[in-house]
Amino acid sequence: MDIDWEVLRSTAAAAAERAYAPYSNYRVGAAALVSDGRVVSGCNVENAGLGVTLCAECGLVSDLVLGGGGRLVAFTCCNGRGERIMPCGRCRQLLWEHGGADLLVETPEGIWRMDAVLPQAFGPEALAPDAPEPVQTPSSG
Ligand code: THU
Questions:
Q1: Tens digit of each residue's pLDDT (9 = 90 or more) over 12-62
Q2: Cβ of residue 107 lying under 6 Å from some atom of ligand 1
Q3: pTM of the model
Q4: Is 56 in the pocket of ligand 1 (CB under 6 A)?
Q5: For the chain, which terminus, N or C, has the lower number of CB atoms within 10 Å?
């Protein structure tokens, strides 16, 4: 599948301009290519209850699901200056759910696979009905 990173970058930058970030003044925009060719995006939306803040990736995932779902294929995010940034830890987990190991993530150091951005991730297979029970031994903590 062809990935137009320029389209993703400009979509993320446009999303960052829409951010609601009156508390941190740190705008974030995120954009991703979906398996069916759609481009989804999101911006951060802060709240006076600071812990309630929604990261840009939350909006992106909502856009994905509302638009019919699918798998994330390629992802980028930037700050208000258009600089590449890394998704925070919580958002890496969100991306894992909808893109998995193969998702390509643009980082400040280039394009990385999601399983390098979030190694040894906890994912849906752990909750599958026939998933093996983790063995507890004194040495495994
Ligand atoms: N932020 C995101 O939107 N995504 C990230 O992955 C990192 C952080 C936002 C949350 C908050 O509004 C601001 O950046 C500063 O942390």
A1: 999 999 999 999 999 999 999 999 999 999 999 999 999 999 999 999 999
A2: no
A3: 0.93
A4: yes
A5: C
